[in-house]
Amino acid sequence: MNTDAKLPDFDTLSRLYKEDPAAFESFRRHLLQQAVDEAPQRHRPALEELLLCIEANRQRAATPADAAIGAFQMMRQSVGQLNAAWQLGLQSLAQLQADALMMKLRAG
User: Fold this and answer.
1) CA 12, chain centre distance (Å)
2) pLDDT < 70 positions in the chain
3) Which of 54, 14, 17, 12 has its CA nearest to residue 32?
4) Between the CA of residue 75 and those of 26, 70, 72, what are the distances in Å?
5) Which of 17, 66, 90, 95 is at 20 to 30 A from 106, Cα to Cα?
């Protein structure tokens, strides 16, 4: 995201949400799209897909709190998938190191 642009403070955003929910929603969507647009090109398709998932979650949610909980659950699931991939990578690396060591010991 453009770090030159300053976000309004919490109270201003809260007041906007209460007084003009449509303007708040427009601003929120603009910021999210701006973040996607400013991301490196190779990450944009995944970010667009993530944005669609977030919006679908928001549409299903009965309240803003439910939307936040859904977003948190999606993030937790993503972290779990990243952790599983990391663990698999570590196991593969350990196996390669063990195989290389065994080959060296057998040859020596």
Assistant:
1) 25
2) 1-5
3) 54
4) 23, 9, 5
5) 90
Print the SS3 string covering 2-56: CCCCCCCCHHHHHHHHHHCHHHHHHHHHHHHHHHHHHCCHHHHHHHHHHHHHHHH
Q: Residues for the chain: how many in total?
A: 108
* Angstrom distance (rounded) from CA 49 to CA 52: 5
Read off the pLDDT of residues 45-76 as tens digits, 9 standing for 90 and up.
988 998 999 899 999 999 989 999 998 998 89
Q: Are 71 and 57 in contact (CB under 8 A)?
A: yes
Radius of gyration in angstroms for the set of CA atoms belonging to the chain, rounded to a whole number: 22
Over the range 2-31, which residues count as b (16 or more CB within 10 Å of their CB) and which as e?
eeeeeeeeeeeeeebeeeeeeebeebeeee
Residue 82 in 3-state DSSP? helix
Are 37 and 2 in contact by the 8 Å Cβ rule? The answer is no
Structure tokens belonging to residue 24? 């708040």
